[in-house]
Amino acid sequence: xxxxxxxxxxxxxxxxxxxxxxxxxxxxxxxxxxxxxxxxxxxxxxxxxxxxxxxxxxxxxxxxxxxxxxxxxxxxxxxxxxxxxxxxxxxxxxxxxxxxxxxxxxxxxxxx
Length: 112
Description:
- This protein has helices at 10-21, 29-47, 50-53, 104-110, and strands spanning 2-4, 62-71, 74-83, 88-91.
- It has 112 residues and is an alpha+beta fold.
- A four-stranded mixed sheet has the order 1-2-3-4, with no helix packed on it.
- The longest helix is centred in the middle third of the chain and has 19 residues, at 29-47.
- It is extended.
């Protein structure tokens, strides 16, 4: 069961509105569009987990999207929190373009 649904972030909504309001030749428009594309890619990455989660039995799991929690005086954000009777799973999604390279020497140093 999805307890907290995912919404389009406020920053993306503001940037979209700003791009519609600025003239096409505005000097800051390329910077704004670049920021908007990065944020939309991140949001698209977060949404990509929704399909696999849709296969879970709704009555067995609680799903919280885009959760903002407080620890003492600090706040932190979780992309998705999945809770069952037996465990809680924090899911952080990254949407990266290009190739990822994992250094085998660095990985082997963690195994010791």
